[in-house]
Design a protein that fits this description.
The chain is an alpha/beta fold. The protein is built from 5 helices and 7 strands. It is elongated.
Amino acid sequence: MSHKNAAKLRLIRRHKRNKPATIMLTSMIDIFTVLVFFLIVNSQYQVHLPNNKSMHLPKSVAQDFPKEKLSVMVTPQDIYVDDRKIISVQQVLASPDSSIPALAQELQYRSSRMPAERDEQGHISREIYILGDRRIPYALLRKIMVTCSMTDFSRISFAVERQKGASA
């Protein structure tokens, strides 16, 4: 074999090794389809709960996922409605009233901006959930619940933390 033939063979082998990469579109489309379905199915169970590191929710074995609705967050220091500070806990506990006027005012404002829902008897009934630290006093919780029901938020739910080992 001559020198020219050897060089030609090396050139042919080099071109075989340096083939352009091809993309398997069918496989890629299958992967993206599965990924899209996974994201759609799992996105319906995500609900934004206000996050507060100093608050410890009670534990529960509840299986239901919360719905998006108005939230009242009660920390050891303050009361919030959807991350907006309303009043301090000390002021509420010092007040002899059975309700919380500042919270009632905020809830009335929020209810005026929400569609009205009616219960079986025809009364206006809205949903709200309370995120309360497990160490808050019952007197405070009672005042919050009275205030909520006075302002047409009669369907009250409590946010809880799922216990370890509870299945989904």
